[in-house]
Write a structure and sequence with these properties.
single chain, mainly alpha, Tetracycline Repressor, domain 2
Length: 242
């Protein structure tokens, strides 16, 4: 019985042909990481190619121009994060007996959004720095490219939920509903992006050094849903020891 024909032998010394999709994804990941670490303006095609161990010509094979590379970072790395954070929030099954309670709905929504932002930053460590430097920062090169992908309808619905709770007396009058999501970003991405700085400030405090992403999420949720001060008539909870 004859055996199946063998594959053509590879020429000696010639490297195997890389998987195009994997090579492109690797270059995109490296570009995203460099954009976060040193800024978009300071990152050249040559520096990305050098980090990847390829020639600039190889990078241009996958991305015809620097603008095309930047657009790919936005569309393929940042936009999926936005989609994940703003995907429909499932109902809180623990509050099924009071589905019309807007305060419970708002607390559940805030908790879910905070958790998604921190989970995204945990899975993609480049996210906090890239967002703060290139989207939030005035003159950030990704700002306009990213802002057009924000789901304005869901942002407005979220602000509307907060405003409804406020009208019902469940949220303090001093809160501006349109700024609540920015507060979420400030309480999550900012401490994540500046962790090296505040760890230096509290360098002799072992508790501060033990603060991780889960603790940052818990802090943000507590600040946003409970606030700093105990409501009148309630006894403060004992300190957690953290």
């Amino acid at each position: 019985m004859s055996s199946a024909p063998s594959a053509p032998a590879r020429r000696p010394g010639r490297p195997p042909r890389p998987d195009n999709a994997a090579a492109r994804a690797n270059l995109l990941d490296l570009a995203t990481q460099l954009f976060a670490a040193q800024g978009v303006a300071a990152t050249t095609i040559a520096s990305i190619a050098q980090r990847a161990g390829v020639t600039p010509a190889m990078l241009h094979y996958y991305f015809k121009s620097r603008d095309q590379l930047i657009d790919a970072v936005v569309l393929e790395r940042i936009v999926p994060v936005i989609g994940f954070v703003w995907a429909p929030v499932p109902l809180d099954v623990s509050a099924a007996d009071a589905p019309q309670d807007p305060a419970a709905a708002a607390r559940h929504y805030i908790t879910e959004i905070v958790s998604r932002v921190v989970q995204s930053a945990t899975d993609k460590p480049w996210l906090p720095s890239l967002w703060m430097h290139e989207v939030v920062n005035e003159g950030g090169q990704l700002r306009d490219r990213v802002l057009r992908h924000l789901p304005s309808d869901r942002l407005q619905a979220f602000a509307g939920l907060i405003a409804d709770c406020q009208r019902r007396g469940a949220i303090t009058p001093g809160v501006e509903p349109r700024l609540v999501f920015l507060s979420i970003l400030g309480l999550t991405l900012l401490p994540l992006a500046t962790s090296t700085l505040w760890r230096r400030i509290w360098q002799d405090d072992p508790v501060a050094q033990s603060i991780d992403n889960e603790a940052i999420a818990a802090h943000a949720i507590a600040m946003l849903t409970g606030g700093l001060f105990t409501p009148p008539g309630l006894s403060p909870a004992p300190p957690s020891g953290r």
